[in-house]
Specification:
The longest helix has 23 residues. This protein has 3 domains: 41 residues, no CATH class; 108 residues, Uridine Diphospho-n-acetylenolpyruvylglucosamine Reductase, domain 3 (2-Layer Sandwich); 108 residues, Enolase-like, domain 1. It has 11 helices and 14 strands. Helix 9 runs antiparallel to helix 10 and helix 10 packs across helix 11. It is of the alpha+beta class. The chain is globular and about 60 Å long. The chain starts with 6 loop residues before the first strand and ends with a helix. 46% of the residues are buried. The structure holds flavin-adenine dinucleotide. The site of flavin-adenine dinucleotide has 28 residues, from strand 2, helix 7 and strand 10.
């Protein structure tokens, strides 16, 4: 199928883009990598009257460290995240996730902002950002909002973003000493969306106990979510195989998978246990350095 006719603009900077979105509120949509939006338009599930292509808004492409946080531009591609040396060294979980997204073409063009704004219930970044307690920066002509990734993913393909807002940046606290993370993705074939995806970032105190913990799950609910019950089980605990099994069970009980072409819900619940265990074990190894 081909999409219905639409207008197309390529603003030169963020200010112009925001102005156009405000003027055409409700009928304009932002175009980033196009890998999610264009297929929807071809199926006529999305019918924007105007596409606002962000490719010339180069200020949104960067990845940097500012003080105690990493800042990733909304138009940073999966590949640029995969290949950023400072980000990868501090947060190898970001490399784990980026490496498993789609194929080289998707990674070259698809963007983190597009993935987060699209909010596919099986997307990888939303689980990782919740495990990392990241924040999402949204801009409109009226100003800037910084919202926690937790709570941003409201439902399937539904987020807290307003039609006149652009996701300009993701902010991730830089991990301190004793911190390690891992993203474990179960997929049917390389390049597929997750059957189950589990992101873990943990920080160990001087006494070896878990000081901070973040666990994000994808593909096993209406939207990616934080496995808060598993986090509660682990916070303050000394890491052990038994504790990890308990937490993995809690994560599985909090998940709400559906039967689909990736497998029955019962299988996915079992896989949440397995992948959570693997992610916790891998994160612990990294946290211990
Ligand atoms: C074959 C295939 C395999 C894939 N595999 C995976 C996978 O394994 N894991 C995974 O997580 N994803 C996967 N994806 C999705 C891929 O990561 C997409 O790139 C991503 O979901 C959307 O990013 P995009 O830059 O292409 O956004 P677009 O398609 O351009 O936009 C998507 C939506 O977000 C909005 N939007 C985009 N950018 C912004 C912004 N800065 N501010 C506000 N709104 C914005 C658009 O208006 C649109 O509604 C796959 C996609 C395909 C086609």
């Amino acid at each position: 199928m081909i999409p219905p006719a639409f207008d197309y603009v390529r603003p030169a900077d963020l200010g112009q883009a925001l102005k156009i979105l405000k003027e055409r509120e409700g009928e304009a949509k932002v175009l980033s990598g196009g890998f999610s939006l264009l297929p929807l338009m071809k199926l006529r599930l999305a019918q924007p009257a105007l596409l606002v292509d962000l490719r010339d808004v180069v200020d949104l492409n960067g990845i940097s460290r500012v003080g105690d946080e990493f800042r990733i531009g909304g138009r940073a591609t999966h590949r640029s995240i995969l290949e950023d040396p400072a980000l990868g060294a501090a947060l190898p979980i970001m490399r784990d996730a980026a490496a498993g997204i789609g194929d080289p073409q998707i990674r070259n063009w698809g963007t983190i902002g597009g993935s987060v704004a699209h909010a596919d219930p099986a997307a990888d970044w939303p689980a990782v950002l919740q495990a990392l307690h990241a924040s999402i920066v949204l801009q409109s002509v009226d100003g800037e909002r910084v919202v926690p990734a937790r709570g941003f993913f409201v439902d399937t393909f539904v987020t807290g973003i307003e039609p006149s807002e652009i996701l300009t940046e993701i902010r991730i606290p830089a991990p301190g000493k004793g911190s390690g993370g891992s993203y474990q993705k179960l997929e049917r074939r390389a390049g597929d969306f997750s059957t189950v995806g589990v992101a873990v970032q943990m920080t160990l105190g001087a006494d070896g106990r878990i000081n901070q913990i973040g666990i994000g799950l994808t593909a096993v609910g209406d939207a990616p979510f934080a496995a808060t019950k598993a986090e509660d089980a682990l916070r303050g605990a000394t890491p052990s195989a038994e504790m990890f099994r308990e937490a993995a069970g809690a994560a599985s009980r909090q998940s709400r998978p559906a039967d689909d072409s990736h497998g029955p819900a019962e299988y996915k619940r079992a896989m949440v246990i397995e992948m959570t265990n693997r992610a916790l074990a891998a994160a612990l190894v990294r946290a211990k350095g």
